[in-house]
Amino acid sequence: MSREEPIISFDGVMLHYGEGTPVLKNISVSLHKKSFHFLTGASGAGKTSLLRLLYMGIRPSSGKLKIFGQDVSGITRDELLCMRQKIGVVFQDFNLLNHLTVLENVALPLKVVGETEKRRENQAKEILDWVGLGNCFNMLPNAMSGGQKQRVAIARAVITRPEILLADEPTGNVDEQIATKLMGLFYGMHRMGTCVIVATHYRQFVDKFHYNELHIENGRLMVDKQSSASNGEVK
Questions:
Q1: What is the pLDDT of residue 208?
Q2: CA-to-CA distance for 11 and 31, rounded, in angstroms?
Q3: Most buried one in 85, 125, 194, 196, CB count within 10 A?
Q4: What DSSP state is assigned to residue 5?
Q5: Among 7, 28, 16, which residue's Cα sits nearest to residue 60?
């Protein structure tokens, strides 16, 4: 069992939107580096809300959430920006910048952290080749299909080799062959030490790849009893 401090720690976390029924109830789980987790649950169960908590787009209504060992409820804006640089996110709606080319979109996180133009371009081209978009460097997102945009968003999310990678339905707009290749990319990130969390309703992949499963039902998070998600190890 790993003795290191968890990279993510939920302790009795609740999430409300307004005065309604809690979306997430009493979430308590710890996730470690170099772990891979599928996040499952019915549509509307709270998967995207959980990912938003992890990206610190929203804060818990109650309970304690620690990321990189720091309680997110008290962080400053500068600390938030610094922490987000260590988190890669694949959003369902892609969040690409339509006035930038594909290459510029993918290279943008490297620009934020101060990489040279040549290094940004070389790394962006390499990852775009890997996801099968090596002939799309100069395209604008508006000219691309949903599946192509999805791969651009994934390339952008992994280019900095983040410590945490959050992916919200990342295989929803691609065929099975591309989806399997993308899962291989996520697996590679996990092997390099990244904590990977993939929200999906695609049961075929959950059953095919024997990773930890975190399942949300009625607002509560359940850990696959056959996995070791609580200690961060991967089956």
A1: 85
A2: 12
A3: 196
A4: P
A5: 16
**Residues 45, 224, 60, 48: is their CA dihedral positive or negative?**
negative
Q: Which residues contact 26 (CB under 8 A, 6 or more apart)?
A: 12, 13, 14, 63, 220
Q: Is residue 201 over pLDDT 90?
A: no
188 CB-side CA count, 13 A: 11
Contact 150/173 with Cβ under 8 angstroms?
yes
- Cα gap 184→181, rounded to integer Å: 5
Report the amino acid identity of residue 142: N
Cα radius of gyration rounded to whole Å, the chain: 17
Token pair for residue 58?
Answer: 């929203």
DSSP letter (8 states) at residue 42: S
Task: Name residues whose C-beta falls within 8 Å of residue 35's C-beta, 6 or more positions apart in sequence.
Answer: 190, 195, 196, 212, 229, 232, 233, 234
Centroid of chain to Cα 174:
17
Note whether 64 and 11 are within 8 A (CB). Answer: yes
Tokens of 223: 């850990």
Cα-Cα-Cα-Cα dihedral of 23, 27, 30, 34, to 10°?
A: -20
CB atoms within 10 A of CB 7: 22
The pLDDT of residue 3: 58
Where are the chain's structural domains?
96-161
pTM of the predicted model as reported, rounded to 2 decimal places: 0.89
Could you report the per-residue pLDDT of 92-104, keeping only the tens digit for each? 889 999 999 999 9
CB of 105 closer than 8 Å to CB of 96: yes
Residue 160: name the closest of 94, 89, 55 by CA.
Answer: 89
CA-to-CA separations, 68 to 122, 130, 163, in angstroms, rounded: 30, 29, 9
